[in-house]
Amino acid sequence: MNTLTKPANETVAFIVRLQARPEERERMRTMLFDVVDAMAKEPDFINTWVHEDQAEPNTVVLYETWACSRETFMARHLSKPYRQAYEAALPELLAAERTITFLTELRAYPGRTES
């Protein structure tokens, strides 16, 4: 079974909100994209969408899906070496504490795929 067809209990989805200090906005984004580029190579990675909040341009919102449980994600992926500098810099980069909201899938509506 590939990661796109795993049952919901074998995946974790969550939303991350990062409100950058205005003067640290570009540095935060650069470091964030370096982390996302590295994590996209992880075997448990399914997808991530990175958005800018239209009402708060200093806020980035990520939607992530991983092919593992919440507990496995927290234990296995948050401590990866490629995240260390980013995690250490967050207190100086962010105007407010990062929030992570874990989600429970109720129903999926897969989009169309191109042939």
Q: Could you please describe the fold and organization of this structure?
A:
This protein has one domain: Alpha-Beta Plaits, CATH 3.30.70. Helix content is 28%, strand content 25%. The chain is built from three helices and four strands. Strands 2-3-1-4 form a four-stranded antiparallel sheet, with helices on one face.
Summarize the structure.
With about 120 residues, the chain is α+β, with helices and mostly antiparallel strands. It has helices at about 25-40, 70-75, 85-95; strands at about 10-20, 45-50, 60-65, 100-105.
Main attributes of the structure:
115 residues; alpha+beta; Alpha-Beta Plaits; 4 strands; disordered N terminus
Average pLDDT level: 91
What would the CATH topology be? Alpha-Beta Plaits
By CATH reckoning, the class would read: Alpha Beta
Strand order of the largest sheet: 2-3-1-4
Radius of gyration: 15 Å
The shape is globular
List segments where confidence is low: pLDDT < 50 over at least 5 consecutive residues: 1-5
Element order, helices and strands? EHEEHHE
User: What separation lies between the terminal Cα atoms?
Assistant: 21 Å
Strand content: 25-35%
Q: Main β-sheet, in a few words?
A: 4 strands, antiparallel
The domain tally reads 1
Which percent range fits the helix content?
25-40%
Name of the CATH architecture: 2-Layer Sandwich
